[in-house]
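Handout, tutorial session.
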Amino acid sequence: MTSWQPDLLARLAERVPGDVVPYGSVTAPELLDGWSDLDVAVTAREPFAAHHRTATEHDSRAAEAQAVLAGPLGARTALDAYTLYGRPRAEIEPVYAADPAPLEAVLRRGAASGSRR
């Protein structure tokens, strides 16, 4: 499987008016797969708009993603984001079965410790 992350990273570094610094799995190509995300930190040197130049089949889901992120961020946000991620993945990869139990365990542990992060 070809990973899309290095190509997108190169395009971002070329087009974003600022510094684009990768972190996470993209810095270790042997860990990448098609479902790995692309983690970058962007330091802008001037204002810029972040949008697609052309429509994609995923644009219809933008409102749903915005709704997940619209409220106060917290444990419910993490669970909602996980669910939002899982639906299209299951459409593309029928053998994928979402399992929120590990995330729920982490959230319970954080709540028990009194963590607000």
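The second record follows below. Compare its token runs with those of the first.
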Amino acid sequence: MSGWTSSAWREVAQWFEARLIQDNLERRLPRYSGRVHLGDAARSSDLWSNNKLCQEQIDLRRRLDDMTVDRYISERIRNVNAIIRRVGVSMLPTSEFLLPFAAACIQAELR
């Protein structure tokens, strides 16, 4: 994306984080009980009604906890690009902003 600045890529990374949160909610929302919708979830199982989804999140977190930015780029940038293409952009491997953008994305996935 020629002509883009580091601040523009920071905004894309912030959008990426918001999109991750929204996508996660949309995956879990169909199984939420009325208790959750009213803010009365008493148990973590009320929020994580799908054991497979919960385990996937735990496994991803464990992988990301020890992942370097270089490894994140090689393993996850395709996933990041699949998400940010929704707003018409993608991060090229030759971009001067790749490392800081990938660092922001790994932080977003860890939050």
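Points raised in discussion: The chain has a mean pLDDT of 86.
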